Amino acid sequence: MLSLLTGAYSQTSSLSAVRRFFELQQLTGQRYMDAGHLNIGMYLYDDWCPGWVTLDTGDTIGDLVLHYNAYQDNIVWLRNKTDQITLDSKNIAGFGIMYQGKEHPFKKLKIRTPQDSIETFAEIAFEGNVGMYVIRKNKPETQTIKNNIPYYNYAPRPQYVILMSHKTIILKNRRPRTLYIALPEEEDQIRERLDVSKLNTRSEPAFFSFIKSISDILLKENRQ
């Protein structure tokens, strides 16, 4: 009986290993030379994070170790202790990372505005008839040179995307004034709602809560 159980476990383990092998074969990319020591703040988080990748097929590959390069909009996979791969994002619909016990899900957005059209990964704040996303872009801020070697420091420059069925609003910051400029006809209603809610939109969670609370105003504007 013990022999049979051992054999069954071994077979199951082998099948799992085979499935995992073919699962990881779907992750394609090129070897990445980590320049993080020369580029401080280039990644969304300095630490390697547990995470997952969702393919265009809908398949999700979990138990990965990831970095998100917020400067280049790339996902970097730590395949083993020394082998880093920049994943080909062409067939990736989204990904997620766990940081300090919290999930940070991202999806690929195709954003079309009258001026431009971009494709980028964006963190999901909330979704529904009104969706709220954050483009986590880090940009160079300062440069120093030591021993003739340039070192760059990057700082977060997030953009906030409000997505509706027939309208996309991109905000460069969380200031109410920026929202008023984007929605001039609804400024009075939004001001009134902000005064009533007494929310301080300086924090991201409060800002997201406020945007969700004015969904009715946004949808009304969207229908016009």
Helix tally? 5
Overall mean confidence score, pLDDT: 87
Helix-strand topology string: HEEEEEEEEEEEEEEHHHH
Proportion of helical residues: 25-40%
**Which regions contain 5 or more consecutive residues with pLDDT less than 50?**
1-9
Going by helix content, strand content and strand pairing, the class is alpha+beta
As an assembly, this protein is: single chain
What is the CA-based Rg, rounded?
A: 22 Å
Q: Please, could you describe this protein's structure?
A:
It is a single chain. About 25% of the residues lie in helices and about 40% in strands. The N and C termini lie far apart (about 70 Å). The longest helix is centred in the first third of the chain and has 23 residues, at about 1-25. With about 220 residues, it is of the alpha+beta class. The protein has an 11-stranded antiparallel β-sheet with strand order 1-6-5-4-3-7-8-9-10-13-14. Strands 2-12-11 form a 3-stranded mixed β-sheet, with no helix packed on it. The protein is globular, with a radius of gyration of 22 Å.
Question: Would you kindly provide a brief summary of this structure?
Answer:
With 224 residues, this protein is an alpha+beta fold.
Describe this protein with a few key phrases:
single chain, 224 residues, alpha+beta, 11-stranded antiparallel beta sheet, 27% helix, globular, disordered N terminus
Strand-helix topology:
Blueprint: H1 2-24, E1 29-31, E2 39-40, E3 49-55, E4 60-69, E5 74-78, E6 84-87, E7 92-99, E8 102-112, E9 117-126, E10 131-135, E11 138-146, E12 149-156, E13 159-163, E14 168-171, H2 176-182, H3 187-197, H4 204-213, H5 215-223
Parallel strand pairs: 2-12
Antiparallel strand pairs: 1-6, 3-4, 3-7, 4-5, 5-6, 7-8, 8-9, 9-10, 10-13, 11-12, 13-14
